Amino acid sequence: MGKKAIYQPTIITEPGYYYLIEDVVVAGRSQGPLITIQARDVTLDLNGLSIISGDDAAPAIILLDEAAQNTIIQNGNVRGAEGRLIASPSQQPKTLRLNNIIFKGGGGGIDISVLEEIEIIDCSFSYGGTAPVLNLNSDGDTFRGKILNNTIKQAALPSAIVVHGLTNGEVNGNLVQKYGAPGYPGSGAGLLLSGDSSGNVISMNIFNEGGENVPGIEVHGSRNLIENNQIIGNGGPGISFVNASSHNAYRQNMLRGNLGGAVVDLGNLNTDEGGNII
Fold first, then answer.
1. Residue 226 is part of a domain; what is its CATH number?
2. Domain containing residue 167
3. pLDDT, tens digit (0-9, with 9 covering 90-100), for 62-118
4. Domain match, 125 and 74 both
5. Which of left, alpha, beta for 260 (phi over 0: left; psi -120 to 50: alpha)?
6. Tell me: the pLDDT tens digits for 151-209?
7. Neighbours of 1 (CB within 10 A)
8. Into how many domains does the chain fold?
9. How far apart are CA 159 and CA 137, in angstroms?
10. Bridge-based pairing state of the strands 239-241 and 230-232
11. Residue 64 and residue 127 in one domain
């Protein structure tokens, strides 16, 4: 298939390896995505360059359309004033890998309606939008995933990471700061694990500076392990297990300086396995 160069707003309709040869920039209202992917087995290599939207690129700067599957996006920058950065409203389950990307701005972050598998690794998000930075869903089913070694800062509104249906996944080595909507106490969390998220390992992350009554981690699911995290300086509890949560475990976490306490457990059979510093 060879390599195919991109230097302007593009609709990708064939499988292959695509790479930027210059920045793709739309200064004003773009009237749509800058990159639309309408094919399977696409690698989009930003090649150290940038995709930049100066206004609302509805529904996203990079759009994964119905046919997009097994997509890799890597090595560059995605910046927007408004609108989502990467989105897929499609009901066809997606496999998506994001690696080594700097994301800035946007009114919404990464928003995928139906996932089969996702990896987000070594990315950076500087963001202050009105939707979660990572909003990852499975539409009532489950998906596999790894969220590793990312930095999320200034996630002013509301949650930083929201996962619906992540099963047997990893959230590891991430730095997540400043989340929760100002003026809306208890709105959001650093990481929100929904009721259908289970069997995940949450480890070696830092969650701090959550807003008023906002927890570092909020757990609705079951059989998740939370270990070796620093969850400090939040306006709510360090870890919040809500009513529906059950059979989760937490150990060896630093849980100091959270105004809502170290742990609030309203669930069933969640276990403190020791070594937590409170």
1. 2.160.20.10
2. 114-278
3. 999 999 999 999 999 999 866 788 999 888 899 999 999 999 876 678 999 999 999
4. no
5. alpha
6. 998 755 678 999 999 999 999 999 999 888 666 556 789 999 998 999 999 999 999 99
7. 8
8. 2
9. 14
10. unpaired
11. no
